[in-house]
Structures are given as C-alpha cells and as structure tokens.
Description:
The chain is α+β, with helices and mostly antiparallel strands. 24% of the residues lie in helices and 25% in strands.
Amino acid sequence: MNLTDQLHRLLEAGLADVTGTTAAELAACVAALPDEPRGVLVVHPTLATARQLAPLLRHRDKPGFVVDDLTDLEQFVPLDGLTVPDRPLYLLADPDRGDDMRNWSPDEALPAILDRGRTPLTLNEGISWLLQEPKVLEPGHCFMTIGSRKRSGAALDARTPAIWISGGTGRDGVARRRAPKVGWCWAGNRHTWLGFASARHRRPLDR
C-alpha cells in the first residue's frame, strides 16, 4: 500500500479530528517521507497518543479501547537506545507479529529480537500498523509492543503494553467483546496467544 493510500486510511479512521490538524497538513508530512518498501505510516505520540489512537482501531466494527487500569499509559515511552524519528509521521519497515515467539516472556523476547537485527515496536507503532492492516489482529494471534516501557526509578516498570482482542469478560464488559484492546502483561510472564511485534528499521533516521 503506497503512502497516499495509507494517509487516506488514517484520515478515514479520524486522525485529523483526533489531532486537530487538516488533511493538507498531514499530507505535507507524508510528502517529506522517503520511499520504503513494506513501509507502514506511523503516528508519533506528539501528534496523537496511544490513548487517542486506540478508539480508531476496529475489529468486527467494534472500536478499540484502553483497559481501565492503565491510567499511566502516557508514561510508557520508547526503551532506552530505541531511536524514534522526531517527526509527526514516519515509516516503519517490514513489521512482523512475532508469532514464533508466542509463549515467550517479554524478558526473553527482547534480546532475541535485537539479536536478529530487528527493533521492537512501540505501542504507537503497533496501533498504527493495525490502522493500516486490521486483519493482523486475530483471535489467538495478537502481539505485545515491548518497545514501550515505563521507567520506575532506575529500573523498568514490570508491565509491558500489548494489543489483543477482548473476550468481553471482567471490567471490559460484554459490549466490548471482540473489540481491539490495549492492555498490559507482566514482563516475566508467557502467553500462548501473544507474539512480539518487531520491525527491520524506522525511516527517516540520521545515518
């Protein structure tokens, strides 16, 4: 999908309304981007936060949501050493859901992703990917976005963000069954239905 088509999808999802920008302003951001095979247009948190983007997600016509107990979501930022382009829209190359790492813990997956020469997706990147390719999110085949973590003093908070499909139980409520859900998992826990989303690189970045 070319960048013009991707921008159109974001506008149809409601990005201009969420960000208070015009379609022309967003188009100007896209026009400055390099061509990138298998590139996905990413919305930087300074343009729209994960909390703002989550309701734009759709699965079976159900809007996405953030779990109620993730009140500190805005404090989850890119991992130290993970460089995100400082611009409203940028490109993520060759994203992958990381299905081969299902039933791994985030603590186990991160070094393996880096050893493969890839980079873990941030939460905004994961949501942006799903805005372009909603079918990537499937029952039993969802993913964590461990590129986003919260600092807790000198250490990392024990939670890692993830995106999956709600079963409509507990505080989610029956009305949210089958809706895309932004939640969290413990960094040391394993889940058979969560992979670890990663990409080859981001563009543009200083070389």
